[in-house]
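README, section 4: Worked example with a bound small molecule

Sections 1 through 3 covered apo chains. Here we extend the same pipeline to holo records, where the ligand is supplied as SMILES alongside the sequence. The molecule in this example is zinc ion. Nothing else about the input changes; the structure line simply encodes the ligand pose together with the chain.
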Amino acid sequence: MKSKVISIICIITLVSCFFFMPNARAETLEEQKQNNQTKQEEAKKELEYVQEELSESLVKIQELDDKIRQAENEILGMDTKLTELGTKVTDTEQKLSVVQKSYEENKALMEKRLVVMYECGDVSYLDLLLRSSSLVEFLSNYYVIQEIMQSDSELLENIEKEKQEIEIKKKQLEEEKAQLKLLKAKKEQTRIIMQNNKTIQQNQIDKLSEDEKGLQDKIQEYKNEEARIENLIKLASQNYTYNVEYTGGVMAWPVAKSGTYITSPFGTREHPVRGVISFHSGIDIGNAGFGAPIIAAADGVVSLAGYNGGYGNCVMINHGNGVSTLYGHGQKILTQVGTQVKKGDLIMEVGSTGVSTGPHLHFEVRINGSAVNPLPYVQQ
Ligand SMILES: [Zn+2]
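The generated complex, written as structure tokens:
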């Protein structure tokens, strides 16, 4: 019974430790590099996709271009037709006015003639003829009457013809004006469609170009970051020819404060957030609080002191013989590159900079650049 209770307490303690301890860890440089390359691959794929889309869009844009040119030609043709129709309308209007004038004149003439005939009373063409006193007069009158009769008849005919012509011309004019109106509307419609196509085309080009540019920038950023990380790895693995030699033996516990302990060990483990198996290149030392003193684990020369991606504020010390130590997530760096340090010298304050969820020290021991388990080297 007692052992059961103890087991339960142990489980509860372990679970709460897992949840409440400042159990944060930094990405190693190798992990950073790998992540970066994955992101770069993703961005490249995305770029390929966008470029494919762009080339597909270019076909569509070409089609739109054809449509636009076609519409422009149509509008040009319509403009010619409009001019032609305009001339035709003016022409018809002129002709109509001429016919109308002639019609008015003839009508007036006929009315005048009718008045004369009325005023002459019953006098008909025959009466006038019979009143001739001589053959010469008869012939003369006959001739005149014939002329008049002919003229009257022609006049009447003309008037009738002109009346019809006016009707036809008026109808023609109406039709032409309707055509003109229709054509103008069609032209406006074509113009609007063309404008829309142009806008769609431009927007598509703009958007895709923007996407392409953004992705290229992103890839460039990743490449820059990769180069930076690559450089850091190179620097950290370098064998310095300083006047120090790691003579072996026990290193100092790197946090000079009592009550601190390992919250995350060295080695492979499941990532608490991402759930993937990853490699932890050092040990996390917690329960230190912000500002706790971080000290040099052994004699050496500071080879790196500055902000470094996931490590946050980071210090590396080269102890000679290919041995170096790394200290991450510091609140404040208290040393600089090239400084010779003695075991126990203050180099940084505990903090939570970089990829970290609480104040702790990420501590690494590296042999020729490769991270090894620090446990055999340090003693608490
Ligand atoms: Zn860590």
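What to look for in the output: Residues 1-25 have pLDDT under 50 and may be disordered. The chain has four helices and 15 strands.

Section 5 describes how to batch many such records.
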